[in-house]
Amino acid sequence: MALERRLARLEGARGARPDADKAARFTALVTALDRLAARKASGDETAQAEIDMLAGAAR
To answer: Are 50 and 38 in contact (CB under 8 A)?
Structure first.
């Protein structure tokens, strides 16, 4: 009986499963930001303008 209660409590605390669509969008966003950072690090002068644009859009 105690084991069943413990399993039920653990099952309830586990939380919801992640949304596959949201995870895919997050991965795409991180990939795009990584590419932008790599471009800036390599000296691409337009990368900073894109970063500023994205920062302004996020506000």
So the answer is: no
